[in-house]
Amino acid sequence: MAGIELKSTAFNDHALIPDRFAKQGDNVSPPLTWSGVPDEAVELALVCEDPDAPSGTFIHWLVTGIDPRSQGLDADEKPPGGHQHVNGFGEPGWGGPQPPVGDKAHRYFLRLYALPGPVSIPDETTAEDVHNVLDRQQLASGTLVGLYQR
């Protein structure tokens, strides 16, 4: 399976996410670029999740239906053609990092999936359900990990 290269101009892989993107900051989604999407992809899906959350993996962002010809997005930009699902805060779209005060830095996994066709994921869903759909159907994927601590 081919890999997608997923990057951000705001932070490097396994580096700290700037406060601007955190829930208590400006709460804007980070700028992202990607390359290596297979030609046969019909749709992209983007997930940001925190597996270190005290209550279990927490979804900070889930977008399906992204145009596979797109190559990225600016900070706070809605992904082209995408449908932003409800995040773990109960809000549609991006919900920035907000780990408990005093916790070690949490890891925030941003994953972009190339898919062979449209996917159906309920608006409010669990990380496990998201992975059951996307991991099984993906043509390729890429991951960028950011860290955040309060």
What is the overall shape?
globular
> Into which percent range does the helicity of residues fall?
under 10%
**Rg, please?**
14 Å
Q: Structural class given helices, strands, pairing?
A: mainly beta
Mean pLDDT: 95
End-to-end Cα distance, whole Å, is 37 Å
Order of helices and strands: EEEEEEEEHE
Kindly estimate the percentage of residues that lie in beta strands according to DSSP: 25-35%
Uncertain runs with pLDDT below 50, 5 residues or more? Answer: none
Largest sheet report: 6 strands, mixed
Structure summary, number of beta strands: 9
Question: Could you give the order of strands across the largest sheet?
Answer: 2-9-8-4-5-7
Give me the number of helical elements. Answer: 1
